[in-house]
Write a structure and sequence with these properties.
Order of helices and strands: HEEEEEEHEHEEHEHHEHEEEHE
CATH architecture of the largest domain: 3-Layer(aba) Sandwich
Distance between the termini: 27 Å
Strand content: 15-25%
CATH topology of the largest domain: Rossmann fold
Helix content: 25-40%
Shape: globular
Number of helices: 8
Number of domains: 3
Amino acid sequence: MTQEPSLFFWQLALKWLEKYTSQNKRIWILVNKKWYSNGIICHDCGHIPQCKKCSVSISYHKTISGDTIWLCHICKAQYNLPNKCSQCWSIKIKEFWIWTQKVAEYLEREFNIIPTIIESETVNSPNKIKKILSILCHPEWNEGYKNQWQIVVWTSLLCQPIKDFNFDLIIFLNADLGLNIPDYTAAEKNFYFLYETFVKHNCQNFIVQSFNPDHYSIRSACKLDKQWFYQIDNKFRQENNYPPFKDICIILYKNEIEETVFNKVDKLHKELLYLKEKYWIKDMEIYSTPPLIYKMFGKYRYNIILKWENLKNFMDIVYTKLNLASKGFKIDRMAESIV
């Protein structure tokens, strides 16, 4: 996709879309994120407005009536949509990245088809699920939804196949979005996101769009080769001391005052290093780092990460000596992710 002029579809995908819509075929477009777009960016200075309570970009939403909402997807705080950059006052601001609503808008504009959007809000009750299934499986019963069944825009959270309903074409809009998460499990989750869709759905035609098509997670999934994937992924984990080769413990501290967070984490980090030296543990890694989302609900957050093959015994010592729970630290002794 790095060579494509369009942010939406690869040229081959567009040809298949044109061909299959003209033949009234069923098309599933899998989009990793719901709502309209990830936020807005200034094309002059690169500033991306963030929520005041959370260190994430403010998402751009559209209601059914067409109104726009600027919303934090974590704390749900709403903001007024700006018409100029708050940093350099440029008017060259534009939403970036494409989510379910924006894809549906593009399809309606380019193909004159209003797709069905399936995401958590549209299938969170039995009545909503029944309505969606009636549209998809019996479009002739729903005149108000003419041609709507032809294209389904679906999030990755809902990739289970529908009983007695097969697609003629499945398009992964961005197959490597999950790889952008700085976590050692990202490649594995991305692999199974693709692999299980290939295996579970009775579809002969898949198009996989990617900005990183040579990544082993994507290549091995497209080849349905689990062995190759784990061969490369295990090598990466072993070289970087990740499970299953080493245990990981994450100690999180959060507070409304940023300086307090730094002081508390720094003090604990020094105490852990002291215990490491005292008990002659040479190959244990101990380091502090901010999590993926540094601020949530008005509280700053910071992690201390420990890696070792026998962390349980060391953490028993830490609990006895330092009494972390009473000091406001949250401990994940056998962490399955560092995000």
